[in-house]
Amino acid sequence: MNGVTNNIPMLAWSWYWNEYDFELHVSKNAYDVFNAHRQYNNKNECGGQLFIDISFNNGLWLSSATLPHPSDKSSKHWVELNSDRCELEQNLARKNGLVFAGYWHTHPQEIPMLSHQDKISIERFYVMNKEVIRSPIFIIVGTSLCQDGIKAWAYKNECYSEGLIR
């Protein structure tokens, strides 16, 4: 729990959802994980989990994006995170005062968009976890280095809402 010591992370950018009046600050550490795993040169998709630190006095921070894991299954167009590693990461994050927020993964397109398969996965995840997480965040990392090369969606009330960069 970093916020207790007031060591505010370095800011990469913030996403804002107007309809929810919700802002999420993205730490440089999380950005570095996304940037290091872009899906270039026929690589398979990869991804990890997202954790928020709620202890800062200046808002919610996406402080941790876990790394892809060798036990995950993937191809060029889908990824399935290993459930055992996800459980271990969530337990460790909870012990460190972090809150599970959702998932991130890569796409081979420059500017990522939610695919039909992404929507099916998100809806399945929500049905299984709606008592634990009411509005999960899903981040897709594209190949473009511009700001639109990484996008986030919140899923709430059976609707997808894209976060706007501030």
From TrEMBL:
Signal peptide: none annotated. One of its GO terms (molecular function) is metallopeptidase activity. The keyword Protease applies. One of its GO terms (biological process) is proteolysis. The keyword Translocase does not apply. InterPro entries: JAB_dom_prok. Keywords: Hydrolase, Metal-binding, Metalloprotease, Protease, Zinc. Residues 28-153 form the JAB domain. This is Mov34/MPN/PAD-1 family protein. It comes from Rouxiella sp. WC2420.
